[in-house]
Amino acid sequence: MSEGRSVALLADCPPQPWRNGGGTTRELLAWPPARGAHEPWRLRVSVAEIAADGPFSSFPGVERWFAVLRGDGVRLALPSGDVTLTPDDAPLAFDGEAAPMCRLVAGPTRDLNVMARRGAGVATLRIAAPGSRLEGDVALRALYTDAAALLDVDGRIEALAPGTLWWSDVRDAAAWTLREGRRAFWLTLEDA
Known about the structure:
- With 192 residues, this protein is mostly beta strands.
- The protein is 0% helix and 54% strand.
- It has 2 domains: 8-117, Jelly Rolls; 122-190, Jelly Rolls, CATH 2.60.120.10.
- The chain starts with a strand and ends with a strand.
């Protein structure tokens, strides 16, 4: 693997219980790596297992992206109104301080969470369909896949296991193309 390209596997990330007891979170990435108490992450990627209704935690100064990976979905009570999300829906962006109430549609869910600090860059999260590409001069790019996938990285095919976050902070990286896979997401962080 070349310098600046990394892989995080969900299976290697220990679950951390939520304070309210409603679920667990597995942190795949906190970027850049902390070098001290006064240097927080700019971007954080995690996967949560929501087991019970309850409010999201508040993250002032953070933009959040949320996508349902598995389960029947959730209903979020946001300041702009209630939103129901299922695995078939595109990721939803909202203010981290909103701390919406979350109600499960019918049982537990697994969900992808992306958080970016305001002023640290502009994050985007979108569904990655087979044949779609990710390219451009960005601070960070990533692919998260909840199922097995094949990723073309500069003509080299990488087989990705379910629960893989493949990411790079090399600005001049070649384009990536998703060759095969479902329930996959492109993530970018552009400079502010």
